[in-house]
């Protein structure tokens, strides 16, 4: 188990020693940049870093374009089916970095304007933990660290709208969410909390 203070110490050390985290820290002088999701979750689960990281950026479109142009010099930039760039960095530390601007994280049917908005629209609490590069601050508004240490997979919200994932993928967001919860429950060795388990059973495909 790793508590919040130990996790913060680990992340502070990582951003001062890891080449790519050092680069992101440097960019945070001009941009509000956060790491969220599996990178932090996996540190908590097994004290090991992931081979990819999810970076969220609070910026307008013009600022984001400038950021991507700069980061493109680090490796090979490609755009995925959801319109967000993925930076492939041929390195032993990470294989790629997914870079998501707040304005492109569309799951709530309304604009998400803050990192708190973003975290409250993640899939489950173990993913809804963020590292703020600018302020060297750990954000855990949904107590994901406690859930991980208690072996729980708890959905952040169970009211996602019934809509297709994208124009190119004719699957409903709810169906994808259902499969995603089951996948990670099995892959991470966690147990569903009561509300999430009830939703899984009630929405069985």
Give an overview in words:
- This protein is globular.
- The protein is an alpha+beta fold.
- The protein is 39% helix and 21% strand.
- Strand 9 and strand 10 (169-172) form a beta hairpin.
- It has helices at 4-17, 19-27, 38-46, 61-71, 115-119, 144-149, 173-188, 194-202, and strands spanning 32-36, 52-58, 76-79, 85-88, 96-101, 130-132, 137-139, 152-153, 164-166, 169-172, 191-192.
- Helix 1 (4-17) packs across helix 2.
Give descriptors for this structure:
seven-stranded mixed β-sheet, alpha+beta, two-stranded parallel ribbon, 205 residues, 11 strands, 39% helix
Structural class: alpha+beta
Total E-strand runs: 11
The whole-angstrom Rg is: 17 Å
Number of helices: 8
Helicity, as a percent range:
25-40%
Q: Give the strand line-up of the largest sheet.
A: 3-4-5-2-1-6-7
What sort of overall outline do the alpha carbons produce when their principal axes are compared?
Answer: globular
Strand percentage, roughly?
15-25%
Mean pLDDT: 88
Distance between the termini: 34 Å
